[in-house]
């Protein structure tokens, strides 16, 4: 049930607000504070779903309460209560993060509508946080080897910055995973993470996919369409397999990086974008530059930070940890009884040449869980995961 705090120095106004809210919904838990200091102390020590806060109060005014509370618990929506002379200040509190403001004396319908909307928003914020935690778990980086520890340390240093990152490594090593972690640990984590597989999009469509198009730009362009760069505004765009991008698209990406502007296919009109670019490739881009297939100026724009994701063969010590991690994940997804792996089975798996890297290991573990015995044995590995 929603828990609401009312911070108001006028007892008559507090009584009115409590009466209106309790009659609207008898499940509301209503608490009150008679000044800003007591109100802020209550926010520190309790979890509220909503705070109604007066602006003009002794000891500590509502603006100060709002600013302090936003630092402590930014997810709590604040509705500011303003007198006629406080309207300019009330509008300013919106810039500081208040959900809305209501004037004295409070209009019944406006008050109840604003309270309902603020509580709905709080629910959405909480659900979004839970969803983000689930997403983070799906992209968890597993391993304790020196090679993977170096990558984790780099991510911790690089993620909070705005630096562009070029991730290199063979197929299946986890380049996409690294890109997700960079976004999740960045200041842009609340914004979108947009993935583009440059190798999967035909060269004649890549520009439209990245930058959008206007109606009539080409035969099938029946309406205006925004591209991935616009979709990633205020967030991160991940350009996977960028080594497969056409030279004309590369030129437009270079402009987007240089000027923070893009233009849709079929028009010269500029659109401002605020996007962090993380790119990845399994190709040697320096050789691609020598062959004339990749722009050197774009390479230097992208490769502010270079991250080489190690192959599984270079982090064999992580294989037992990865086996345990994938086993739990797969048995949960498949709804089957969890299985253990014998020491001999793990030793044999560690000895294999994992040309397909993490992706191949996961597939093999899934096969062994489905086809192997109650405890996956060395014989099971030989039968079902033979290299």
UniProtKB/TrEMBL annotation:
Query: Which residues are in the Response regulatory domain?
Result: 3-119
Q: Has the keyword Disulfide bond been applied to this entry? A: no
Query: Which GO BP terms, alphabetically?
Result: phosphorelay signal transduction system; regulation of DNA-templated transcription
Q: Which residues form the Sigma-54 factor interaction domain?
A: 141-370
The Swiss-Prot or TrEMBL record annotates one GO molecular function as: ATP binding
Task: Write down which residues bear the modification named 4-aspartylphosphate.
Answer: 54
Specify whether DNA-binding is a keyword of the entry. Answer: yes
| SMART domains for this protein | AAA (SM00382), REC (SM00448)
Name the keywords, alphabetized: ATP-binding, DNA-binding, Nucleotide-binding, Phosphoprotein
Highest rank taxon of the organism: Bacteria
Output this protein's name: DNA-binding transcriptional response regulator, NtrC family, contains REC, AAA-type ATPase, and a Fis-type DNA-binding domains
